[in-house]
Amino acid sequence: MGTKLIYRMPSTVIDEALRMLVIERLPVQAIAAVMGVGITSVKRWASCWGIPLRKGKYGGMAITIVHHRQAVLKRPAYHRLTFDDRITIQAGLQSNPPLSVRAIAAQIGVSHSTVSREITRHRVAFGVQEPRYSAAGAHGRALVMQAHKEHRRKRLDDPGCGRMSSMRSMTNIRRSRSPVGSVVSFLIGRICM
Question: Which residue intervals define the domain Transposase IS30-like HTH in the entry (predicted)?
Fold first, then answer.
């Protein structure tokens, strides 16, 4: 995902509008009234950041955001970055002098490659300035991508033996006269039948 350009408004104004849209879940009309801009401008900002909007009387951001990670005794091996993690990344990049990617990763407790990938994936160019990272926009876009991935069809529909697509490929291996084919046919006979 390359950088996108947003013109004519200071980045602090756009960040504040995105904060109201993402965190406070205000309707687009209310944000436009508070910011003193048109509804189309707020919609354009949201589309540049990849935030889905709900239409109608109670329009606004279409996805609910969970702000804090629930306390767990043992942290899982893989977790998605939360809004708090993304705010930490933004604060580290905007500090004077800016923190290194490794220092930010140590604060959050993730790998430095995760932080680097997050910054690269969710930076946006504001006018003629260098591309910047915004936590609100990054979190909104990440939620959109996550929602799309959750609705994808899974590879195996049957959790037991996986008789849909994997059985076809195993049948092709079984037909071959190799030692692998005989082992596969033996295992299929033992597990699935």
Answer: 78-122
DSSP string, 135-184: HHHHHHHHHHHHHHHHTSPPS-S-TTT-TTTHHHHHHHHHHS-SHHHHHH
C-alpha separations of 65 from 48, 81, 125 in Å: 19, 12, 24
Q: DSSP character for 5?
A: E
> Where are the domains positioned within the chain?
11-64+79-157
Please spell the DSSP secondary structure of 103-121, one letter per residue: HHHHHHTS-HHHHHHHHHH
Q: For the segment 2-16, what is each residue's pLDDT rounded down to a tens digit?
A: 444 445 666 666 677
CB 43 within 8 A of CB 159: no
- Residue that is written with structure tokens 């889905």 in the block: 52
DSSP E strands in 3-52: the ranges are 5-6
Place of tokens 């291996």: 173
